[in-house]
Inverse folding.
């Protein structure tokens, strides 16, 4: 599914090279639920960018769903992002002026789908995250948790190979964070591959597998029993 | 917006969103053309949305284009209106009328020489040129004492001519009669008035039988001509027709009278031919050698019309070009605001790129936004310019109504769109060339 071999990423800061990732080998199978953790500066974000095809590694090979993506040109990377990856960001990154439905439908525009089909799919995705009653609201009319659900629906709408979440609960209170994590667990149970980048151990606790980065290298890669899944709708107290 | 024909129904939906990777990517393939059209539609929608979201700013951005287009349209409308009214006037003169008049080339004028047509030239044209009718001499005598009716006077032009004048000019009396052969033969003191001259002299509606003073002589009014309206804001009815010989005898014998010849060509097809024959005849009569310039000029109302339209289109082009420069200034304004807009929306661009928007989509999105902005400005400008031209035309007394040709509207809108695209290229490529990571990181 995701196969990283020998990945290195070097940034040039002024006249010195800074190695953000060194010799990373990682395999993530279909329907795995992985937390990518580590202190700040450990290379988490770079790792996330490489995994999400937002950035290309300096060395090594990256195969996503059988396609070698390390050496692709920008527009090919855009296609890969559009079709195989669903992004979820810490600060949601929704379009402020457009409705929830249009926000969710946005990735499908770049696929060239007709408007009616885009809307049907977006509505289905919103239903999946329990926001079918908020379709025509603007993001600023929604709570933080609802906004993140919209973002998750947007990530799901294209039926990607993998969901890639970057500190998805970083801007949420602990109760809402639990609801969001419960939603991720449900999605995982439905068979979706999820990679969550986080520094928060309580978030990592929900995952099956924790990959800890330190100074650009994988310091730890362990499997664990995930924290119990509480259906989001039943959460009452933190 | 959603009036699209769907190329395929969204019906066979496999259980939604369950199981990643089940769906093959090719499931979502749309034909290239359709995808492009959807993209254009989406870009238009987002452009309108963003223009609407920043209403005041968008308006100020368009202001340069609005002012530029409005002035172009206004100027063209006024010029075209003017040209059209002149052309209508000239058409009224009759396309088959020729006018022969003396012409003094600059070299002759510097020698103090003034060329004149002679009485014999009129006779020669009448008898030697075939296929012409209504050959009539015309002189414009001046009377220092003016034209008066008691205390009322007029600056009307005095036209001394023969009965054929009314046929040559297609202009006939409304009341009474025109000057006749016998008036001319006996040098009778009779006058036919134009409408404006009658008004100036404060004569009754039907002035036939009244007496007026032309110079020091008393003239009997025998007729009133049909009114002809205005051209260039000047009345075409401010004249007074008297018999040719009367005019010659009264204008004094100091110097040769400046005789003009009016005539009509029987067959309009032979206009060119007749013109050439008159030319040849007069050159021979005036003993002009080959290589020497004519001392006369043969003009048709057609050639006048051509001259007017040539002058008018030259002025139109020059003015439009000068004012068109303001459109370029407007374009710079659009570029400026679009650059600001790209910076402002860097995050938005980053999100779009992260979600898989290809470079060309972002490029097109901003190009279309600049183009839509400029085109809306252009259309507002056309509307304002249109109103402005009517306002200006009615503010200037006697100005003909403006006319906005379709090519000016199409040209103004097209040119603004072009300006939008040209000046949108820089901001759009700036947006398209952002890397997704940098754009997302942008605060």
């Amino acid at each position: 599914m995701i196969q990283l071999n020998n990945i290195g990423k070097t940034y040039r800061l002024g006249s010195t090279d800074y190695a953000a990732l060194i010799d990373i080998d990682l395999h993530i199978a279909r329907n795995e639920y992985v937390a990518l953790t580590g202190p700040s500066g450990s290379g988490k974000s770079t790792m996330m960018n490489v995994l999400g095809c937002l950035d290309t590694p300096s060395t090594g090979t990256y195969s996503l769903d059988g396609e070698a993506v390390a050496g692709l040109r920008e527009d090919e990377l855009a296609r890969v992002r559009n079709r195989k990856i669903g992004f979820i960001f810490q600060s949601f990154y929704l379009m402020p002026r457009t409705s929830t439905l249009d926000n969710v439908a946005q990735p499908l525009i770049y696929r060239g789908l007709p408007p009616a089909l885009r809307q049907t799919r977006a509505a289905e995705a919103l239903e999946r995250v329990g926001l079918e009653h908020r379709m025509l609201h603007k993001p600023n009319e929604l709570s933080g948790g609802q906004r993140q659900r919209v973002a998750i629906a947007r990530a799901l709408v294209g039926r990607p190979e993998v969901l890639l979440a970057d500190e998805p609960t970083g801007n949420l209170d602990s109760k809402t964070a639990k609801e969001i994590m419960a939603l991720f667990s449900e999605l995982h149970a439905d068979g979706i591959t999820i990679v969550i980048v986080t520094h928060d151990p309580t978030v990592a606790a929900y995952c099956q597998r924790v990959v800890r980065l330190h100074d650009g290298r994988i310091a730890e890669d362990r499997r664990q029993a995930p924290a119990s899944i509480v259906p989001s709708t039943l959460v009452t107290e933190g | 917006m959603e009036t699209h024909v769907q190329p395929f129904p969204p019906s066979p939906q496999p259980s939604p969103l369950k199981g990643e990777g089940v769906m093959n990517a090719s499931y979502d393939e749309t034909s290239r053309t359709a995808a492009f059209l959807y993209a254009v539609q989406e870009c238009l929608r987002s452009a309108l949305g963003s223009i609407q979201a920043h209403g005041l700013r968008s308006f100020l951005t368009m202001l340069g284009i609005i002012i530029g287009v409005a002035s172009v349209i206004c100027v063209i409308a006024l010029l075209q209106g003017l040209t059209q009214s002149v052309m209508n006037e000239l058409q009224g003169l009759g396309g088959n009328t020729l006018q022969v008049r003396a012409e003094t080339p600059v070299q002759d004028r510097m020698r103090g020489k003034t060329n004149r047509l002679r009485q014999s030239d009129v006779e020669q044209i009448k008898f030697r040129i075939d296929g012409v009718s209504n050959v009539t001499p015309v002189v414009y005598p001046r009377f220092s004492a003016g034209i008066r009716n008691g205390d009322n006077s007029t600056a009307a032009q005095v036209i001394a001519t023969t009965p054929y004048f009314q046929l040559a000019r297609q202009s006939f009396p409304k009341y009474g009669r025109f000057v006749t052969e016998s008036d001319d033969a006996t040098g009778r003191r009779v006058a036919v008035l134009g409408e404006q001259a009658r008004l100036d002299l404060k004569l009754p509606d039907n002035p036939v039988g009244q007496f007026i003073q032309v110079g020091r002589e008393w003239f009997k009014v025998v007729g009133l001509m049909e009114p002809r309206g205005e051209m260039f804001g000047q009345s075409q009815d401010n004249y007074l027709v008297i018999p040719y010989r009367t005019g010659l005898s009264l204008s004094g014998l100091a110097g040769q009278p400046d005789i003009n010849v009016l005539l009509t060509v029987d067959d309009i097809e032979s206009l060119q031919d007749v013109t050439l024959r008159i030319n040849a005849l007069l050159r021979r009569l005036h003993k002009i050698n080959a290589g020497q310039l004519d001392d006369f000029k043969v003009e048709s109302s057609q050639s006048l019309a051509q001259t007017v339209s040539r002058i008018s289109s030259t002025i139109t082009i020059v003015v439009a070009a000068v004012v068109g420069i303001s459109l370029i200034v407007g374009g710079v304004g659009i570029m400026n605001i679009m650059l600001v807009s790209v910076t402002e929306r860097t995050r938005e661009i980053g999100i779009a790129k992260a979600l898989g928007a290809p470079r060309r989509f972002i490029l097109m999105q901003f190009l279309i936004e600049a183009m839509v902005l400029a085109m809306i400005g252009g259309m507002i400008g056309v509307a304002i310019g249109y109103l402005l031209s009517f306002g200006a035309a009615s503010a200037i007394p006697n100005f003909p109504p403006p006319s906005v040709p379709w090519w000016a509207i199409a040209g103004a809108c097209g040119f603004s769109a072009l300006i939008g695209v040209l000046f949108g290229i820089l901001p759009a490529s700036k947006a398209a060339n952002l890397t997704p990571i940098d754009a997302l990181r942008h605060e």
